[in-house]
């Protein structure tokens, strides 16, 4: 019993570390658009998000029940070291995607870690396949599309309702709306994501015989999970905030308001139904939808493609890391110690790598480095009308969309035989010098 008690304590600490990484990994979900549009200062935004994440952790336990008794069969011989290995897989993947600035799903990293560790240690009968499909995979596919469509429709409606108003007249109101909607997303994030750690800790307590099967999370579990995710949120995942706020599309206040409102509604509805969906995927889908909803807005599909690829890799990648950790931890006390040492070494190496090009609240809005345009973006630029200063033809010359205007001092070439006759030479030369 002494060994089990010590191991459960290690699992609880590891679960809270994962909750901490979840907080700074997913801060961008609530605050990226608010920070990128200047509605709130970066530090103020993450502080508000942290407080509301803590409050949200106390609002519901439905998602925690899904984790503790829905996906993994708690009566199939699951041991605390299995949960420990699953958490290690989730933490390593969270930190790798944070280093790359990719808003991947912390939720799916946790699910993949638990499933991979369980398959190695117990077998397929330890995983509730139907629950995985119904409460994880289907929401993972549907949620980004639902949130994206809602944000796109809301963005178009917003611009239509304010088409006769000057942008300066509406910007202040939309920024206030962004603050309110960001608060709602933060509350929803605490309600959904903090519960996942509560469910893991409760599962560990059940496997160790500390609490009865199918029990609700104790109050101290709820409070500790809420505090851990709030602390991680306050420190801010600035790398992912930059990607969400500047890397996917250029967000304006009406778009930010529409994206955050649609995302919050989707997350709160899923929490009520017990769906442990990815808030990252929901918010990313909403940001892309808002980019498509604004006339002239273009989504950077190269960044979006890398992000979606990370979504697809999250479950199997975290599962593979957790499977290896579970195999090693199953060898005994030395195996558990070896997993802990290796995990600390990997996490330390990732942190040191991040210090080479640090991103914090002082440079988060500078935007990502320029990258080659993707196929979709290139196609959209081809069919989009060029800016007025580039499309204005030279005197008598036909319009040539997308052709740069000649530099000042370089004589414009007439496009046809009528050009010289229709425009006197001195006038053409003066116009060229003016430009």
Automatic annotation (TrEMBL):
Region listing for Disordered, in residue ranges: 383-435
Alphabetically ordered keywords of this record: Membrane, Phosphate transport, Transmembrane, Transmembrane helix, Transport
Transmembrane segments: 6-24, 45-63, 83-102, 109-127, 133-155, 197-215, 221-241, 308-328, 334-353
Compartments, record wording: Membrane
Topology relative to the membrane: Multi-pass membrane protein
UniProt feature, compositional bias: Basic residues: 426-435
Classification via Pfam families: PHO4 (PF01384)
Family: Belongs to the inorganic phosphate transporter (PiT) (TC 2.A.20) family.
Name this protein carries in UniProt: Phosphate transporter
Naturally occurring in which organism (per UniProt): Streptomyces kronopolitis
